[in-house]
Amino acid sequence: MHGFACFLVCLPPSPLNTQNSYTKTSCGAASFISATIAGIDFEGFEVDIGKHTLVKTNEDFFAINPKGNVPTIVLEDGTLLNENVATLAWIAANAKNDKVGAKEGPNYFLLINALGFLASELHQGIGGLFNPSLDEPSKKTAVAKANDKIAKFVAQFLDGGKKKFLVGDSFTPADAYAAVILSWCGYVGLTPPAEADAYASAIRDLPDYKAAAELLAQQ
Fold first, then answer.
1. Distance from C-alpha of 210 to C-alpha of 191, rounded to nearest angstrom
2. Which of 116, 117, 106, 102 is nearest to 171 (CA)?
3. Cα 154 vs. chain centroid, distance in angstroms?
4. How far is CA 8 from the centre of its chain?
5. From the CB of residue 56, how many other CB atoms can be counted at a distance below 10 Å?
6. pTM to 2 decimals?
């Protein structure tokens, strides 16, 4: 689930020489998928997160990102972004096409608002169940909290299942992030409500999303 990542380098005509790392099935996948849909040109290199090295070169990943986490974006001037809210907001702001919404204006701030909830609530709620040290009482409590976070997500961001996208009326990186997080439910034994499952399935069935996910699988 969290064993490997990919290290990316954006290529011309991108105005920024940007490096981006992410795991294939963890939250970092949202950065790869969103950047691909956004038309940001890059080359990917696999990273072993367990060893914190680049697979092809054995380069120390800590030398790129001292935190050793994914996703990670390193801008041309050396600026390091290594939290989902920052990396996904940067991708939206630097999209090369109109396939990714919320680039600017009020929707950009609504995007950040949605990303904040996903990172601090939904991600932590569902992702926390991957902790192998949880005993049964702790796991029951964690499951209840995760289900509560999903219910709040459906109520507050999907309007009870009426909305197709989290921000505005088109795909944004927040949708990629949410779809990836909700995909973990099967790994941790959660059964999400029908509204959350239908939303995530619809996002993953978008042609651009499917193409980007297939490209990620080939890395």
1. 23
2. 102
3. 18
4. 15
5. 10
6. 0.89
